[in-house]
Design a protein that fits this description.
seven-stranded mixed β-sheet
């Protein structure tokens, strides 16, 4: 469903595209590269969430009773259809999010990998058994779906993050309600449209657009069994607290402050590519972006400052809808202003601001890729998530000191060390307090076989998205103990 700028983005409920004519608020959806309005999205609320829950509850018994191999067939078809429409979806992501086309293709590709993982749901749902757990008693476990599940997703990965959630939830036998970011609603609708084309029954997947009222309605609705969330840490904590207060399962992934630690023996060429991709890829708008650079040793820090300054001068920033660029814009004007305020506050604090030549487009929400040299651990630049193309250079003299500084941060998503030393890597892996660690990898985001394992203020909950933890989150275990008296067999002469 691709509305014109004057049309409202429809909700998708029970297999039907329904325009919300009751919403008093219609937010503009912008092309971040130009600032132009490309659609309008309703702020649907409790009424529309209730309609989606009713549709999902009605569809649940039949879908949950469908054999897992049969459910997997839908995902094999869905994967094929997504591949057929890959270029169309990537261009839609670039239009409403501003990513480069290469980044948009990566966004979708990582989502499709979760669909591929869901294709193996029959194996993933197998339980355990132990014959003769006691005299004459056999024991087994089985996994059953929860019911109606919901997902609340951010703007920065319009395809991948929703697909962290609904493919696995639905493959497990649940029905699903997706509340995507009101800033990027078009990709979510396209994903639902193609899933319907793959043969998914009506009501199994639903999409409701909105803002805080819709979020709170999801968290409070008694007909919803679980809530998955990705966004800022403040909202993650709110969602987790509200959802748990009504007895729901909740997994809520929040913000991050990820550190890139560079030892003097790191390979300069591959490390430079990794740092640039981590800090400035997706314009720094991802929870796994490397936003703090810690070269160990003063000469090492000087060398990396020079390498990065040279590389930044060569970066091209612009509208990927109109050409090929290294980096696109931020999502909207408020994000641009917030990011720019961090940069503006750096100079009075004694931090040197280094960035690309000032040749960004006049229109759109662009911030130049920036390096801040001289950032201290007590500064907000070090402690707060900027969520933009700004890399803070923090100087440190020893590996142990660097690990100690990292562990002072309240977040716990990712950290990377660049080195040729196995001993340094081992010290780093065992000393760092975060859930995802990279060794010579700029963005240590795991593949769908593994959980996206944030710690501390980067995650609220017990079971993460993806991997077997995701399967465990969207199911509950049933333990069956059975005993059969063999005297009956003997009396029957069997």
């Amino acid at each position: 469903m691709s509305p014109t700028p004057t049309n409202s983005v429809p909700n998708f409920i029970n297999g039907n595209w329904i325009e919300d004519t009751t919403s008093q608020i219609q937010s503009p959806v912008h092309n971040p590269s130009t600032g132009e309005v490309i659609a309008r999205v309703p702020h649907s609320g409790a009424k529309q969430i209730d309609q989606a829950v009713e549709a999902a509850r009605t569809a649940y018994p039949h879908w949950a009773g469908t054999p897992a191999p049969k459910r997997a067939e839908s995902f094999h078809r869905y994967r094929r259809i997504l591949a057929e429409h890959a270029d169309e979806i990537a261009r839609l992501i670039t239009l409403e999010n501003g990513k480069t086309l290469e980044e948009s293709r990566g966004d979708l590709r990582r989502g499709i990998e979760v669909v591929e993982f869901a294709c193996g749901i029959a194996h993933l749902l197998k339980g355990e058994n132990l014959p003769q757990v006691a005299n004459g008693i056999d024991g087994l476990t089985m996994r059953e779906p929860l019911g109606v599940c919901a997902g609340i997703t951010p703007f920065n990965f319009p395809a991948m993050v929703p697909m962290w959630m609904f493919p696995l939830a639905i493959a497990c036998g649940n029905t699903f309600i997706l509340k995507p970011s009101e800033k990027t609603p078009l990709t979510a609708n396209k994903l639902a449209e193609l899933f319907q084309e793959a043969g998914l029954p009506d009501g199994v997947m639903n999409v409701v657009h909105g803002a805080r009222e819709a979020v709170d309605a999801i968290c409070l609705h008694p007909g919803i069994s679980s809530v998955s969330f990705v966004g800022s840490s403040a909202v993650a904590k709110h969602v987790y607290t509200l959802a748990c207060s009504t007895g729901k399962r909740c997994q809520a992934a929040g913000g991050a402050k990820n550190v890139l630690l560079v030892m003097p023996d790191a390979n300069p060429d591959s490390t430079l590519r990794a740092i640039l991709g981590s800090a400035y890829g997706c314009s720094g708008q991802r929870c796994m972006a490397g936003s703090v650079l810690m070269p160990v040793g003063q000469k090492n820090a000087d060398d990396w400052r020079e390498r990065l300054t040279t590389a930044l001068r060569e970066m091209k920033v612009g509208d990927s809808n109109a050409g090929t660029f290294d980096m696109g814009p931020l999502i909207d004007e408020s994000s641009r202003e917030r990011c720019q305020s961090f940069v503006n506050d750096a100079r009075p604090a004694g931090v040197e601001v280094l960035h690309a030549d000032d040749d960004k487009p006049e229109r759109g929400y662009f911030v130049l890729p920036t390096l801040l040299d001289g950032v201290k651990p007590e500064m907000n630049l070090f402690q707060q998530e900027i969520f933009g193309p700004v890399l803070s250079l923090v100087r440190t003299d020893a590996l142990a000191d660097a690990i100690g500084l990292m562990n002072r941060l309240g977040y716990g998503n990712g950290a990377t060390i660049f080195t040729a030393s196995g001993a340094a890597s081992r010290q780093f892996v065992h000393g760092i307090q975060c859930g995802m660690v990279g060794i010579n990898i700029g963005v240590p985001a795991p593949m769908p076989l593994f959980p996206f394992s944030g710690w501390n203020q980067s995650f609220y909950g017990d079971l993460h998205v993806q991997g077997t933890e995701g399967v465990a989150f969207y199911t509950r275990q049933k333990v069956v103990l059975s005993r059969w008296d063999d005297s009956y067999v003997r009396t029957q002469g069997w």
